[in-house]
Design a protein that fits this description.
Helices cover about 65% and strands about 10% of the residues. A four-stranded antiparallel sheet has the order 2-3-1-4. A two-stranded antiparallel ribbon has the order 5-6. A hairpin with a 5-residue loop joins strand 5 and strand 6.
Length: about 375
Amino acid sequence: MFRFAQLGSNLYTGRTSVPFIPRKRLWLSLSAALVVLSLIAPLLMGGLKLGIDFRGGSEFTVSNTASTDIETGEDAVAQSTGAEQTVVTNIAANTVRVQTEQLDDEETLAVRDALQQAYDVEEGDVTSTFVGPTWGQGVTRQALWGLVVFVALATIGMALYFRTFKMSISAMAGLLFTVITTAGAYAVSGYEVTPSAIIGFLTILSYSLYDSVVVFDKIRENTKDLEHNARRTFAQEVNLAVNQTLVRSINTSVVGILPVGAILFVGAMLLGAGTLQDLSLALFIGIIMGTLGTLFVSAPIYAVLRQREPAVREQAERLERGEIEEAAEDEAGEPAEETPGESEGEQEVQPIPRMDPSGRDRPDNGAVV
């Protein structure tokens, strides 16, 4: 713990530094490759596995089962109708949910009877519902519109808050990186895309923006009055700001991952709460990718967008020539030149200003420097 605290202190003061900005080309190249891989992976696996709420289909719920074995339900559906798109989930204690492609009335009765016999339950313990493709298309359309509206409002809001579109564009780039990579990892896992997963995706968008705002606030603080900065260039100040907020970003992500990981691994996988799998998996992956997106995408892109500005380039050139240091010394004040006829021992005696109780300066006669 002491070493971690010391590391945080060294990162904040600049004694230790992770090269986020100096190696921005490397990080952006790796991020771009990860985005491409995330787009290709679902295509290689046949696309995203949409849930019944998006594609439509038939759903059966089997209650009071002595066993919640998933293969039992899959075999029952396959033997009764031969349906290929079958998903069996343990949604609660002694309760199984079976989702299939769209079935007609005869096939629905056949699957219901097969599930009743396979799980050895009463006829009333098996219920069936139907979700039409039109309703599923409506859900898909509303989800896409929600994403578009969220991104648009977030872009405008961040531009107004930071008073520059360059920070807003950089944050949106990190946001897209988070969404695409999370969706790619979600698709590789083989989980269905359900309304709960969409809620998880929207939640991680908010987390990604929150992390970006924290880092960009520090960047804005470090780079204000850049033309008078005699210590570091713009790129160096951005890199320092990212390092100064690094410990906070890690702590925030860890605090978010711990409860989500408990839901995913303990609740969903060990206890069998299948309804939590899609939501918790989306959150678990998204929190990690959101943190990486801010550090390795948003901040480097912002540095790239600003480094070509004339003022930023001029400040870097002046700092390299040492002109800002001289200007800083002049502003701090050099000893005044002696006027003709005035010797060192004949300097004027100046009173020391003091403060009266009201807070105004008050000279104290007789006090000398």
